[in-house]
# Entry
Amino acid sequence: MSQCDPAAMDIKKLALDLATRYRAVILVGVGLPVGLAFDAGLRLRAKVYDLLGAAPERHDEKVAEVQDQVRRWAAQPADQRKPMCTDRKTWMNLSTRFEPKHQWHQIRMGNLRDILRVDVEAKTIHVEPFVTVGQATSYLIDRGHMLAVNLEIAEATLGGLAMAVGMTTHSHKVGLLSETVVAYEVVTASGELLRVTADSHPELYRALPWSHGTLGLLVGLELKIIPVKSHVHMRYEPTHSQAEYCARMYDLSTMDDGPDFIEATVYSRDQAVIMKGEFADPVTPEQRAKINPIGRWYKPWFYTHVREYLNGGGDEYIPLRHYLLRHNRSIFWVVEHMIPGGNHPLFRALLGWMMPPKIAFLKFSTTPAVRKMTFTMQVFQDITLPMSAMADAVNKSDELFDMYPILLYPCRVYDRGPGSGQLRNPAAKDRVLGRDYAMYFDLGVYGVPGPIQRGEKFKTVHAMREMEAFTQSVRGFPFLYADTFMTPKEFEEMFDLSLYREVRAKYAAEGAFPTLYDKIKPEVDVLAVLEEEDEWDAEWGALDPDPSAA
# Structure
């Protein structure tokens, strides 16, 4: 049967409809056990590598192999060279996108996943790019430290975060993950190895964050670490008006002696719980009685546990390992939409040990039809905006998506002056008085929009494009791991690509690596999707008068 055969189309539509309707049953009955076996295979492979293949002492040799591959690429005739990228499988990363790596020349780098050394005196860790957050967290906590910016998802790689972006609940003290990078080790388009620091190669150092591997191949990384204690003393502060939680978040994040960790989970436009965490070693019987190991498989999901504090504040002590990966089991609150009964006590008791669904397996098993369903029927976005826009951003999210909870993390964004990189410097009005930074925040919007949950027709891509326009209007920026629907023109209005282009020219990256927009652009024909959502022409035209730019 041809693709246009009506019978074939009907079968595909029926299969997709059944998969959508019975998604939770399929995921529990098939996805969880198969995903667990799939993950066990990956873990076994990693364990075998740790036992037989781990070789931090071979770092220089492994880097030389990458250099040799790049030099062989450069020796080809110019008309035969395709842009280079790493050979890491797209299903292994946490991006919601599937990069078209088959169109590019893949450089073998999969063995660059060793922790090389920790310098406790200098408070740095030297790693290869495919070391994961979970791997680094376990290694460092055993040595009384943690990454200065430590994400909540164990599978994220430090190299991916360094070349993209990372932020967490300690970022109000240190900024984005790129602020904690001491040095990058980069192989350029010519095969040259550079140790890139703020002093040695200042332009490249500032352009590497948010470059997504389009300026060179990252083969090593030195990051700042901080000393820790065994637990986090968490205090929960309920708020019952938008003005209250917006003001409180700003005050807490700009205090000289503010908490070590700050975040808020917003459960409705006017209700939120603010979490204030401090490093602690509980020693008294009263303190130890309040220890709550929230990461155990039978425990309620963290955000549902936090919701209980809406009716009154409280405090507890959370083991640091559990706190750092507190959103891992429920993937924030996305799993609720995948498995609606997944937080039921009986489900947790019987099957909680298999949770969460394995992201790598879900991506590995995704078909084009399911992929389209994911970005037309759900939203997974982290958007960073100045705190002055917090109320407007929550209201815009409410207006466009009607979905809760949403996440708020405060974060410093520094004003580095001219040529600071892809991020535009904060507006003067957003600068914290007497400081060289503004306080921004991460707006985390994850899950299925309210209208879709209610069975209503919803224009997801229209809504996302409107959110992108709002973000640009307040000098914010989305994390580029998620789906974007901007045209090239809109992308350049949001990000400052002037230094990026200078660096691409200086280090001969043009033609050697994909452009940044090529790495993050929509996987689909946005115009076609908008057309499917109806009245696409008027909406598109309102945001970009030149639709052909897409």
Summary: The first strand starts at residue 84 and ends at 86. The CA atoms of residues 152 and 198 lie 27 Å apart.
